[in-house]
Amino acid sequence: MMWLVPAFSSTKGNNAMDIQAEKIEKLRKALDNFERAHARGESDFFDHEKEEKKANVRRRALLLLNQRARSVNELSTRLKALEFEEDIINEVIDDLTRSKLLDDEVFATEWVRQRAARRGKSSRALDRELQEKGVDKQTRAAALEQIDQADERDTARAVAVKKARSETKIPQDRADYDKALRRVVGALARRGFPAGMSMDLAREALDARIEDLKN
Q1: What is the Cα–Cα distance from 149 to 116, expressed in whole angstroms?
Q2: What is the reported pLDDT for 56?
Q3: Model-level pTM?
Q4: Can you give the residue ranges of every domain in the chain?
């Protein structure tokens, strides 16, 4: 039995990665230009001390964005944890947001697409993750529209099949069967799938696995 995953467009994924790469390169060039101008003394009209602080925050923001995409709230929280001044952080965040280098809509869309396909997460679990990252309800809902009910069920089935394959022995009695079934259901529950769907798909996957073991 093949492990099915939702049919997300690889072209769309590649385009999104290209956009993110362009954003990071744009930020890097902007920071380089600022630092060269500052070094040449071409920025006498502004507060040098403040701009130096902003440059430090920009540099760290770039490093964090190079690691992976982040929400506005997530990046702000990380910078605050590094004990930068809050007003400087806010200015840098505003700059990044205006230039579209930081965009919660793009972030949420990519988060849902990637984690639904690669991690087998349910829409409910993904909504909770985005909420924890400070993404607002409207933006979360728009991102989750990528997943329809058929996608959700296919993702859940793939998780169930994978977990059922870890069973290496045919259950000897009802108690053994129920233990195996709970293990498969648990894998689905941890990813936030509804209880009824989880039980149906877990039983289907486990029964198929038992038949494979008999042959």
Answers
A1: 13
A2: 92
A3: 0.70
A4: 1-145, 149-214
